[in-house]
């Protein structure tokens, strides 16, 4: 064995590439550190190869079926109905369909590479590429050889089923996008206008600020320095089991914070939007809509956990770091005769991500 290894090393040391771009040597490589190449069953038995090919394209067509089922489940269990059962089944069956589609593509591709594609190792000597016509022709030959070895051009059932599976796998995602905003209808003429939808929430003049989710009104005297409280309109808690509750809550959620009044930098037009150091800002990040709820009481910074946008609550919730495009909308607040915190009005600008600003 030692003499054989020495002979291989001597052969490698004495080898020199021939002029021009070398192509693959026809003899398989024999690596001393590995056992001799062992043929697969599909290499020795044509029937086994046919079974492997059938398995691969069956998996790809199974992926197509998974994609179609995800689209069908999205329509069979519409989340717009507001039913918790429909929402649960929508998430379950759409997720299972997409998972099946992607898993079948992955397993099929792996089985294709392991059982159908060429399984022999070859030496391919190389030298510096010079961009000559012969080099370009050799590069084309490499692609032709790779196509022949993979069987992509020759095995039409595998190729066509893979293309169908990949094309179908994006259909569920496209279908899901239609639910991002409701369409215009006689009952909802502004349904397709995101600016209108995000400019109007359940907050109105006199709405009491209440704890989320129980709906208990909040007294200004109960808010301590450095605290951060999750807030919803008091009226929203009464709609907990009604249709549209989640949509209204998604727009109306607020974070209430208290800091020393002298730390607040207020513009003249917002001089009466806070109360004794208490400020209220939308929790919906202006980047992609994640809940902004990580408050640093020493720096008065709010952090979005999704993409690390930071907002300075003491200075109008301005963006000081991250991809958010604009400050968090501020909810004007004051107190009523009983000392409860109330809203002066709705938000004066749209809440949520700024995608609607792109035309």
TrEMBL record:
SUPFAM superfamilies: ISP domain. It comes from the Bacteria. Its cofactor is [2Fe-2S] cluster. InterPro entries: QcrA_N, Rieske_2Fe-2S, Rieske_2Fe-2S_sf, Rieske_Fe-S_prot, Rieske_Fe-S_prot_C. Residues 35-45 have a biased composition (Basic and acidic residues). Pfam families: QcrA_N, Rieske. CDD domains: Rieske (cd03467). Residues 251-342 form the Rieske domain. Keywords: 2Fe-2S, Cell membrane, Disulfide bond, Electron transport, Iron, Iron-sulfur, Membrane, Metal-binding, Oxidoreductase, Respiratory chain, Transmembrane, Transmembrane helix, Transport. It is a multi-pass membrane protein. It is found in: Cell membrane. The chain crosses the membrane at residues 59-77, 89-110. Residues 1-45 are annotated as: Disordered. Belongs to the Rieske iron-sulfur protein family. Iron-sulfur subunit of the cytochrome bc1 complex, an essential component of the respiratory electron transport chain required for ATP synthesis. The bc1 complex catalyzes the oxidation of menaquinol and the reduction of cytochrome c in the respiratory chain. The bc1 complex operates through a Q-cycle mechanism that couples electron transfer to generation of the proton gradient that drives ATP synthesis. This is Cytochrome bc1 complex Rieske iron-sulfur subunit. The lineage of its organism: Bacteria, Bacillati, Actinomycetota, Actinomycetes, Micrococcales.
């Amino acid at each position: 064995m030692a003499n054989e290894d020495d002979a291989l090393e001597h052969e490698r040391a004495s080898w020199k590439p021939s002029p021009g771009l070398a192509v693959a040597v026809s003899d398989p490589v024999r690596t001393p550190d590995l056992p001799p190449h062992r043929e697969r069953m599909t290499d020795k038995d044509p029937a086994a190869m046919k079974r492997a090919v059938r398995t691969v394209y069956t998996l790809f067509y199974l992926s197509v079926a998974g994609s179609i089922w995800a689209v069908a489940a999205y329509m069979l269990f519409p989340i717009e109905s507001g039913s918790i059962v429909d929402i649960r089944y929508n998430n379950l069956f759409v997720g299972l369909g997409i998972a099946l589609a992607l898993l079948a593509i992955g397993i099929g591709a792996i089985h294709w590479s392991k059982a159908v594609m060429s399984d022999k190792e070859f030496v391919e000597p190389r030298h510096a590429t010079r961009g000559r016509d012969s080099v370009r022709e050799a590069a084309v030959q490499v692609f032709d050889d790779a196509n022949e070895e993979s069987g992509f051009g020759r095995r039409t059932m595998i190729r066509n089923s893979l293309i169908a599976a990949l094309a179908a796998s994006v259909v569920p995602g496209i279908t899901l996008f239609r639910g991002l905003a409701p369409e215009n209808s006689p009952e909802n003429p502004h349904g397709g206008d995101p600016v209108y939808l995000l400019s109007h929430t359940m907050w109105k003049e006199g709405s009491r600020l209440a704890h989320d989710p129980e709906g208990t009104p909040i007294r200004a005297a109960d808010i301590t320095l450095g605290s951060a409280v999750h807030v919803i309109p008091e009226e929203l808690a009464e709609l907990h089991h009604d249709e549209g509750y989640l949509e209204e809550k998604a727009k109306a959620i607020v974070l209430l914070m208290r800091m020393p009044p002298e730390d607040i930098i207020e513009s003249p037009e917002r001089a009466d939007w806070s109360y004794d150091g208490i400020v209220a800002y939308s929790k919906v990040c202006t980047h992609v809509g994640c809940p902004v709820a990580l408050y640093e009481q020493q720096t008065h910074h709010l952090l979005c956990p999704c993409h690390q946008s930071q907002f300075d609550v003491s200075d109008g919730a301005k963006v000081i770091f991250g991809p958010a495009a604009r400050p968090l909308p501020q909810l004007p607040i004051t107190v009523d005769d009983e000392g409860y915190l109330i809203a002066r009005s709705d938000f004066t600008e749209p809440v949520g991500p700024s995608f609607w600003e792109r035309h």
